[in-house]
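Quick log. Single chain, no ligands specified.
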Amino acid sequence: MAVAIAPTALLPLDRTEVERLSRKRSEPDWLRDARLASLASLRPEDWPTGAEEEWRRFSFQGLPAGPLVVEEPPGPPSEYSAIPLEAAHNGVIFDRFGDALAASGP
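-> predicted structure:
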């Protein structure tokens, strides 16, 4: 007998929380609006429960022990994945998302 497990969120992810986080990060209105539109389309009943066939076939062998969170290194992205200088002169920004938002202006 399969038992459905209700997904739990790490945060109370609602409109108030999205707006609070957006203000805290000084995000532009267009990004906050996009996040809110995504939130409106989020349906918890569509989240994976772990009972799906794809999850049962995933091998955990070889995964590192401990948390799977990787901290961002300090400094800009690697020069090995930099953009051509001409693209930079045409307004292309290659950086961490938050830094690129700040550099792009309002």
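The chain has a mean pLDDT of 74.
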